[in-house]
Amino acid sequence: MGALPVFRWRLAPDGYATRRQLRAQGLRPGGQQVAAQLERPRRRRGPLVAYLYRIELAKPVRPMTPARWAALAKANAARRICPTCRRDAGYVIPPTLGMCTPCAFPEPSPELRSA
């Protein structure tokens, strides 16, 4: 296998697309290998690299089945449950806290507030 063709930023020929561009068109790489890469130069660091795929080899995105929708809903619900108090927080628990806001920052008791 030879080296990948490298194109400069915004100079890739037609027929190539990144994963995000494929997704915007309703496509996915579909198991194909990276066909080329795009490089965006930067001043003090190495270049930013984006991998390109051939559009004609891309496959349509698989549709969401009822089982996938159910699994996604279950996963999102699990992100809202506080592991400390086991209640639905009403928002996604921040990974930095690891628990809901009332558990992370409890109110001081009234005796401590007056002191």
Structure notes:
The chain has 115 residues and is α+β, with helices and mostly antiparallel strands. Helices cover 24% and strands 18% of the residues. The chain has 4 helices and 6 strands. A 4-stranded mixed sheet has the order 1-4-5-2. The chain has a two-stranded antiparallel ribbon with strand order 3-6. A hairpin with a 7-residue loop joins β4 and β5. It is elongated and about 70 Å long. The model has no long low-confidence stretch (mean pLDDT 91).
Distance between the termini: 75 Å
Which percent range describes the beta-strand content?
A: 15-25%
Helix content: 10-25%
Encode the helix/strand succession as letters. EEHEEEEHHH
Strand order of the largest sheet: 1-4-5-2
Specify the structural class: alpha+beta
Taking the sheet with the most strands, its summary is: 4 strands, mixed
Computed over alpha carbons, the radius of gyration is 24 Å
Report the mean per-residue pLDDT as an integer: 91
Structure summary, number of beta strands: 6
Can you tell me the residue ranges where pLDDT is under 50 for at least 5 consecutive residues?
A: none
Write a concise keyword list for the protein shown above.
two-stranded antiparallel sheet; 115 residues; alpha+beta
Please outline the helices and strands.
Blueprint: E1 6-8, E2 16-17, H1 19-24, E3 27-28, E4 36-40, E5 48-54, E6 59-60, H2 66-78, H3 101-104, H4 110-114
Parallel strand pairs: 1-4
Antiparallel strand pairs: 2-5, 3-6, 4-5
